[in-house]
Description:
Blueprint: H1 2-21, E1 25-30, E2 33-38, H2 39-93
Amino acid sequence: MRVLLLLALILSLIVTVFAVQNNTPSKVAFLSWNVTGSLAIVLMITFALGIIIGVMVMLPSSVRARLSAREERKRKEDLAGQLEKSQAVQASLEPPAVESPSPSSDPSQTPRPDRDPG
Length: 118
């Protein structure tokens, strides 16, 4: 959060210096419109319009990506629920485990070391 605040402060300082240094009047003509204003204001408005147009162009793909991510998240939750259900069914169908005696507890089953005849 502090980093964003610092970046905003730096950007506002740069914009202020830009506006102070570029205060000469300039004339802008577009179709039948004629506007006269400070060069800094004209450039900032042009920049803002460029950002707005860029966001509008990117918006449909962004919305599609969010919808797709939401659908995938829902599908993942559904599959996780199905997995839990099938694991519960599988656990209920398996016979209980029968304990068999371990080989080390029966002394007759322990391996004998080979004896050297000589």
